[in-house]
Amino acid sequence: MNIMEPEDIRTFINGKNVDLLPGNNLDHLNLYVKWDNDQETRHYARNMFPISTEEYKKWIEELKIGTPSEMQFEIWHKNDKKIIGYVGFNHINWSDRSANIGMVIGEQEYRNKDLGTEAAALIIEYGFNELNMFKIGCGMYEVNVGSWKVAEKLGMQRALVYQEQAWVDGKYVDEYEYCIFYDEWIEKRKELLQLGK
Amino acid sequence: MDRKEKRIITIREVKEELNSEEIKEKEHVAYPFIEGENIDLCPPNLDHIKLYAKWVNDSKARIYARNNRPHTVEDITKWFEPSERRGLSDYITFEIWHKRDKVPIGTCGFGRINWISRNANIFMSIGLPQYWNKNLGTEASRLLINYGFKELNFHKIYAGIFEPNIGSWSVAEKDGFILEGIQKKTIFINGQYIDARKYRMLKKDWLKINI
User: How many domains does chain B have?
Assistant: First the structure.
């Protein structure tokens, strides 16, 4: 299902190991639904309720009104020619020029290979360079070490710690908020884009 | 114009605002859900929608409430119409009712309620500037916090207040909220980026000051 015919691969942003393709592809609905319901994948992704294919479809259709307040890309593994996850902006605020990144590497064997870091670097560059954003952030639980390590590799600063903000695995845990401003990204981008290109 | 006179005129104005054709001459009735000393917290009243619309659009009252686009009366009516969904709502709104003056003066409540992690964002807006700086916000927030911890069984209540809105965050600090951190350059207001102060109150900390 996540293997595509060459003519269907519509690359929007080119990377080294991964490309970003337009997300919310109705042909791949079952894949998204699989990832969002998968126990390990959803573990730290705040998906605490099951989601059906119909609900997912409805959510996608509702997004297509006006300038998007959310944006989703598929992460395409170039070598293996497979969709391995998605990355996007949620809560885009066009007047504050800020957004939050959300990302899932849905296919387990592709985790811990710096592919998420590459995909996130591509989308941050897109946000600052093309969408004229001022600040890009992300949030995760303290126990989701992999996720905040990625944020730190991208030069994001831990801006806030929300104490006992979420109930995860039977206890209250802190939530971290990371962010990076445009001028900080200018400093960091060369180093990171070398990693990507 | 002295203070007292100004207040009376204001209340008349408010009542005129409320007295649309069908409810003229009729004393406004509130159905208190939580009773306080000077104010009550009441369910939102569809008869007062025009007043809510005025507050939401008012350039003075909306500035720190993130309302940077106009809202019609119809938009606001929709907020309060019963939801088609049967699930538990993730927000609760009250009207703040001034007991002596018998007028609604603002709204408050909980937003972004997370029923699993048991936390919520507390919000408050006194729509009528004449009632600012009279400790009514403090009273409303105490009633709400009490409701959140004692009835809704929250674990944490939090608030985000923009730096220049000193009145609001000094109320929060007076109420025992702890500064969790500063969210830098988070919103664009009056031509510049400003910081938000993030506050928290955990139930265990609230219990220490409320025994």
Answer: 1
Q: Which residues of B touch A159 (CB under 8 A)?
A: 181, 183-184
Inter-chain touch A172–B155, beta carbons under 8 Å: yes
Answering whether pTM is above 0.95, one says: no
Give the full edge-to-edge strand order of the sheet including B178-189.
B34-35, B39-42, B92-98, B103-114, B119-126, B156-162, B192-202, B178-189
**Residue B24 pLDDT:** 44
Q: Does A95 touch chain B (CB under 8 A)?
A: yes
Please name the residue of chain B whose CA is at the shortest distance from the CA of residue A136: B186
Min distance B34 CA to chain A CA atoms (Å): 27
- Give the gap in angstroms from C-alpha A152 to the nearest C-alpha of chain B: 18
Q: Is the ipTM of this complex over 0.85?
A: no
Scored b (16 or more CB within 10 A) or e, A128-164 reads: beeeebbbbbbbbbbbbeebbebbebbbbeebbebbb
Please give the pLDDT value at position B21. Answer: 45
Expressed as residue numbers, the domain containing B28 is: 3-209
List the one residue out of B200, B207, B19 whose CA is nearest residue A175: B200
B193: nearest CA partner in chain A:
A96
Q: Which residues of chain A have pLDDT under 50?
A: 197
What CATH number has the domain bearing residue B44? 3.40.630.30
Two tokens, residue A84: 């391995």
- For residue A9, the model assigns a pLDDT of 81
Q: What's the pLDDT tens digit per position in B78-106? A: 888 877 777 788 899 999 999 999 999 99
Contacts of B202 in chain A (CB under 8 A): 163-164
pLDDT per residue over A50-69, tens digit each?
Answer: 999 999 999 888 877 777 88
Say whether residue B117 is in contact with chain A using an 8 A CB cutoff.
yes
What's the average model confidence in pLDDT over B122-127?
91
| Alpha-carbon dihedral sign for residues A27, A31, A34, A38 | negative
Contact residues, chain B, for A160 at CB < 8 Å: 180-183, 198
Tell me what the pLDDT averaged over chain B comes to.
85
Residue of B nearest to A178 (CA): B183
